[in-house]
Amino acid sequence: MATSQKLTEHFLTCTICTEVFDKPCTLVCNHTFCRKCVVSYTKTRPEAISAKSLLCPFCSKMTKVSAPERPVEEWADDVKPSFVIQGLLDSFGPGSKDTTHCSYCKEEGETTPATSWCSICDDALCERCIRVHRRIPSFRHHDVVDMSGETKVRVKRKVMCKIHKDESIKYICKDCKTAVCQKCCTIHHRKCDLVVEIESEIPAMKTELRRNKADLLKKQDEMKTHVKKQTSKVNEEFTLYLQIESNIKSAGLKAIEMIKVKERNLLAELKAMSDRHIGELKADIKSVEMSVQMYQQQAELIDQTLQSECDMGVYEMYQGCEAVDVEAVGVADVKEKRRIARIMFRQDTDKLNRALDDLQLGEIDVLYEDVLDLKVTPVLQDTINLLDLKATPVLPDTINVGVAGDTYGANLMDVKVLVVNGTDTVVITDIINNSVKSFYTRNKQPGHSRLSLGGSPYGITKLKDNQVAVTVPDTREIVTVQVNPDLVLLSAITTSKQYRGITSLTPSTLAASSISPPCVDILNMAGHVLKSIRPDHPRRNILKNPNFLCTTRTGNILVCDRGSKCVVCLTPEGDEVFTYSPTGDTAMGWPHGITSTSTGDILVTDNHLHRVLHLTESGQFVRNILTSQDAVQSPRGVCVGGRGRMYVCTAYGVQTYRHSSDHIDPGDSCTAVSL
User: What pLDDT is recorded for position 426?
Assistant: First the structure.
């Protein structure tokens, strides 16, 4: 009785969808699939589409289609199943069984109405036969469906276990993530904790599938909207292309018309000169012809005189010839006129070629979106004055950064010095009071400004002569501030990460560091990440906790990484230029602030060892330019400011260092209060 089921399972089931064949088609390799299944698979393989063939998922053999010009969905319509498959489907496939009458009674020649269906035996049964069916011990656990009344039942396809051929799959082992039969549960999964019936999981599966379907439909709608927008953009760009093409052609036609005007002028001048020259030559011819006639008449008269016997006539003719020199008169007339000797066309090919090369019909300007232009001149941070790094630093004063409006004692992190309208302005970030502050001396009067933010500011970088950008990790923002020298908030750029260190690369791009995840990102001024430099590269394991950043004069990025206790120099593309990572007695305790001067020298603060290091542009150690003996304690940010001053940011104030060769000018410093 199970013969029909086994035939269906082993010979009449599509291996793609695992269902009974629906409109089967047999390929040239004799593998059979549902038409829709083989078409769907073919559509995923570009090589099959190019070859205009159906592709077998089993052996990858191509089956040429009879009408490749038709849509791909119709390619399998003309591919017929083998006569064996078709015969089995006709005999044992869906619809081949008579579910109206009892299968057993039909074999006895009776037509008893069927009331039940056994999916295992694949037979319809009447009331009497179903009772007999249930008495047979091996049939007692068969899945029997009631078909009484007008109920129409969809016969479920039973999936049998591949190991235990007579057992249907009814369970799921969640530990092993596989569907199993009862014997498999007993033998192979008895130690597993989560073995449940498939039927009990169906509602949850359907709920999840419905959710997945909703997500897919949502994504589909989003993609459709995106396609619609892109299509609209394509149409706009094509319209713009046609307009630009028309403008270029118009410019070309104008240039051609100007050339044609010059051509017409040259031709008109040539015609005028040629007409004059030819006219002169024709007048010459006419004059000579008249002279010829005159000479001829003169000769005839002389001939007549010679033939006559009159001596007086000969004498008179002789006297007349001496009196008039016709030829001399004609030549004199010609010489009095300014005549054209020859007309030529002189062309300066080199000059023409240069003119054509210099001919500008216009230029094509292309605006790229979110593209990092590495050829742009980098924004240098400390270029106000050169710092004499060979001289001995002297601490003239410390800027007291506590101001009205502070809730707590100041806790500084970074510092930058700007010259705004000739005024040296020190700008610092106070992380505990959630504010950015500026300090300056104007008209010999000390002044300050305080700008409150929604979070704790951290790194600071100069954007322009009177603008800075500040990271606010708490709120995931980068704020831009105008320095007048009083502070004015310009904008707040939302970012995807909690950035700490920051530096300007170009007027339109920034580099910012994050510690979670550890990386250095290249951003545009909208906060969009153009490139991310991460530590997953084998040679970038130094990026464990990137903190402060600065830009070198060549446009590279200097990173102080306190996790790996080193300074690394990276190109904007992410390549490593050098790494300063000393060991032993020279090892850094906690690299913090960093800056690069206009001469390429690098200054690094070591927060734990209370010092400021001087490195060369290539990352070689020079000396400890400041130590605890110079009154520097737990330095953080560092920068070079007006008149060659060096500003070191500590937790509670900004220390200003000059050099012993400098002349102290009381008006040079900002508000100076010794702590």
Answer: 94
**Coil, strand, or helix at residue 38?**
helix
Nearest to 323 by CA among 332, 315, 311, 334: 315
331 & 405 share domain: no
What CA–CA distance (Å, rounded) separates 606 from 590?
A: 5
Same domain, 454 and 316: no
The DSSP bridge pattern shows strands 171-173 and 195-197 to be antiparallel
Q: CA 252 to CA 359: how far, in whole Å?
A: 10
Question: Which phi and psi angles does 445 have, rounded to 5°?
Answer: -120, 130
Is residue 357 situated within a structural domain? no
Question: How would residue 389 be classed by pLDDT, with cut points 50, 70 and 90?
Answer: confident
Q: For the chain, state the CA radius of gyration.
A: 50
In a domain, 26, yes or no: yes
Q: What is the CATH number of the domain that holds 93?
A: 3.30.40.10
Give the integer Cα–Cα distance in Å for 497 and 606: 26
Report yes or no: 419 and 441 within 8 Å, Cβ to Cβ.
Answer: no
> Is the Cβ–Cβ distance between 521 and 533 less than 8 Å?
yes
CA distance 479 to 97: 76
| 387 in Cβ contact with 408 (< 8 Å) | no
Amino acid at 605: T
Percent of the chain surpassing pLDDT 70: 85
What CA–CA distances, in Å, run from 463 to 137, 420, 504? 88, 13, 6
Compute the CA torsion angle 354, 357, 360, 366 (nearest 10 deg): -150
253's enclosing H/E stretch is helix 198-307
Tell me the residue length of the chain: 675
d(CA 4, CA 91): 9
pTM of the predicted model as reported, rounded to 2 decimal places: 0.46
The rounded distance, in Å, linking the Cα atoms of 637 and 649 is 5
Residue 541 pLDDT level (bands cut at 50, 70, 90): low
Within a domain: 384: no
User: What is the extent of the structural domain holding 493?
Assistant: 393-659
CB of 645 closer than 8 Å to CB of 656:
yes
Strands 144-146 and 116-118, sheet pairing = antiparallel
Q: Is the Cβ–Cβ distance between 651 and 411 less than 8 Å? A: yes
Distances (CA, A) of 543 to 499, 501, 571: 14, 13, 14
Are 476 and 495 within 8 A, CB to CB? yes
- CA dist 173 and 433 (Å) reads 57
Q: Is residue 332 part of a domain?
A: yes
Structural domains of the chain, count: 3
Residue 532 backbone dihedrals phi, psi, to 5 degrees? -120, 125
DSSP per-residue letters across 525-573: TTS-EEEEE-TTSGGGTT-SSEEEEEE-TTS-EEEEETTTTEEEEE-TT
- Average pLDDT over the chain reads 83
